[in-house]
Amino acid sequence: MIINGFQKMTLLDFPGKVACTVFLGGCNFRCPFCHNAGLVLGSNPESYTEEEILSYLEKRKGLLDGVCFTGGEPTLRGDLLPFIEKVKALGFAVKLDTNGTNPALLKELLDRELVDYVAMDIKNSFEKYPVSCGLDSMELDPIKESIALLIGGSTDFEFRTTIVKELHTVEDIEALTGEIKGAKKYFLQSFVDSGDLLAQGYSAHDTEVLKEMLSAAQKNIPEAALRGV
């Protein structure tokens, strides 16, 4: 496996754990507000081997608790599952970030207890999903299947939405959360311009609008919260 980025320690990416983060390039979405354009388009020059990462983890036993797999979209990689198996064999917890478009792999990872935490991005209300993903059209059934797998399973998880002024309204958030009722964790995250975006012309809502969106979300998910605001 070729790894396109590696953060040796994070206190933020894996709730409750000291972790490192593995970044995998490539994505089947083209979300215009994406802050990891280099990873999505495969233009990130960084490259690590699987052996380098496993060697690092071997030396950090007892110091790190877990490993986060993010992207891009990690579930596009056919060698993701065997790599996670090796990480789990070393005794580390695993967190997966995903857009939910590969429910078959997600189900296998969940069934085999190879992931301990899943963070799934919910891009927008289903009506506005394609435009938020930078696509002309898309099949939503895989997204819905992944949502059902997480809500109906026993693995800890969260849903989250990056809120963009030009793409999200209060009404969108109420509709969106209506589709993920039963989730215990849902976070609204404000858009931040990383300087490495897929497109320009996007901005953040002000805090008052974000609070309105939170209230709308809490009609369907009482535990919904703002993150990083």
Structural summary, described in words:
The protein has 229 residues and is of the alpha/beta class. The chain contains eight helices and ten strands. The strands form two sheets. The chain has an eight-stranded mixed sheet, covered by helices on one side. The protein has a two-stranded antiparallel ribbon with strand order 1-4. The longest helix is centred in the middle third of the chain and has 12 residues, at 141-152. It is globular, with a radius of gyration of 17 Å. The chain starts with a strand and ends with a strand.
Query: Helical amount among residues, as a percent range?
Result: 25-40%
Uncertain stretches = none
Supply Rg. 17 Å
User: Structural class of the secondary structure composition?
Assistant: alpha/beta
How do the SSEs run, as a string of H and E? EEEHEHEHEHEHHEHEHE
Strand order of the largest sheet: 2-3-5-6-7-8-9-10
Tally of individual helices: 8
Principal-axes shape call? globular
Distance between the termini: 36 Å
Secondary structure: elements and pairs:
Layout: E1 2-3, E2 5-10, E3 19-23, H1 37-41, E4 48-49, H2 50-59, E5 66-70, H3 80-89, E6 93-98, H4 103-111, E7 117-121, H5 129-132, H6 141-152, E8 156-163, H7 170-178, E9 186-190, H8 207-218, E10 225-227
Parallel strand pairs: 3-5, 5-6, 6-7, 7-8, 8-9, 9-10
Antiparallel strand pairs: 1-4, 2-3
Please give a handful of descriptors for the protein shown.
globular, 229 residues, 31% helix, alpha/beta, two-stranded antiparallel ribbon, 8-stranded mixed sheet
What can be said about this structure in brief?
With 229 residues, the chain is α/β, with parallel strands linked by helices. The protein is 31% helix and 21% strand.
